[in-house]
Amino acid sequence: MRQLVETPRFRRMFRKHVRRDPALRVRIEQTLHLMSEDAFAPSLATHKLSGDLFGLLACSCGYDCRIISTIEVDDVAQQEVVLLLSIGTHEEVY
Questions:
Q1: Model-level pTM?
Q2: Of 62, 56, 63, whose CA–CA distance to 9 is shortest?
Q3: Alpha-carbon gap, residue 4 to 21, rounded angstroms
Q4: What is the CATH number of the domain that holds 18?
Q5: Do the strands 66-74 and 79-88 form a parallel or antiparallel pair, or are they unpaired?
Q6: Domain presence at residue 91
Q7: Could you list the residue range(s) of the whole structural domain that residue 68 is in?
Q8: Strands 3-6 and 47-48: what pairing?
Q9: Which of 26, 69, 80, 84 has its CA 20 to 30 A from that of 55?
Q10: Is residue 32 in some structural domain?
Q11: What is the pLDDT of residues 37-89, one digit of tens each?
Q12: C-beta neighbour count of 75 within 10 angstroms
């Protein structure tokens, strides 16, 4: 199980999207829980990005909701963590 680490940008975008669509909160929280268990679960459709976002990962948390993340190694705990970078619609995050 990987720990999830939210960036300030992710928190800000999360609040923005939940304010716009309160029902989205449940889907996002379910997606985050699944990401902590297995970031590459088939239902997440996790894929590597290219271009300006090369090296990052994107996964789906609904029809038009994407989470941009990366997997890093925490030097102190010596374990992998999922760094949550951004969340939004396809056009907002890409």
A1: 0.91
A2: 56
A3: 23
A4: 3.30.2310.20
A5: antiparallel
A6: no
A7: 3-84
A8: unpaired
A9: 26
A10: yes
A11: 999 999 999 999 999 999 999 999 988 899 999 999 888 878 889 999 999 99
A12: 7
